[in-house]
Amino acid sequence: MFVRRINRFAALVVATVVCSVATVTASIAPAHAAASGVVLMKGSGSAYTDNNGVNMGVIPGKASKPWSFKIVNTGLVSQQFEVTVATFGSGFTATLFNRNKPVSTPFTTPPVEAGASIVLTLKITIDAEEPQDEYIAKFELRDPATHDLLDSAFADANATYQTGTTQHDLFLKTGSQPYVGGSAAQFETAAAIREGQTAKFTIRLQNNGITPATLTLQGFPGFLCEENFVVTVKQGAKDFSAAVAAGVYSTGALDPGEKKQLKVSIKLVTDDDPGCTSDYFFFEAFGPDGNIGSAAHVVIAA
Length: 302
Hints:
Residues 1-33 form the signal peptide. Helices cover 2% and strands 47% of the residues.
């Protein structure tokens, strides 16, 4: 999971100019003007965010999942950028694409005009039978001359089999993404939203044990900028927002394999904090054999 980035653009204002003295002619070589650019990203949906991470559910052994990265030239002249990709862990591949063609890294972009942008895609494939875990790739934007890091963002693939083994399984999904969670704590990011728009999630509470069980559900407010959002939880037409917030929502007795579903709506009511680019909303299920929680991740469109 990833938290907000603060003053991302401010760090790019200061440019360091390095001058080298030619040892043979004793003349001063022209200084390299440091590149200036930022990265926006998106998973699902059409809007980009300047948050530094997007979580998506990926089924191991199946098709790859794409993350899009928009490189914006914030300088005053046309410039090129270098892109590198760092991966954390094993059991997956992260492939960079430019215009639907795979490219090797480091990759140098074609010239990007001042104020313009270029979009690259990073596709992650998780190997079959890999454990339910996070598989993370870091997209790194660099100065092509100095290789200094200008900006970065994380593609976080949450491996999921959409199955569980406990009496208190909690599954969570948004849009066309697969369910994550179940018997493990995971995260999933909805399409980026703007002020007045709503991110929507589905929570499934399921008894995957061998005896009947009653589950309770508690939802927690965001911990970054919760005052900017309003959360609503419904089962059918009935509003259970207060019960879920208080941790007293109950499924009633569920037979083995039986489940209950709730719809979660998270509305961005105000976008007056430039430091708030996303928030996580945790939901925790409790049953006779324990508890588990997963998070709905909401990002704000840039």
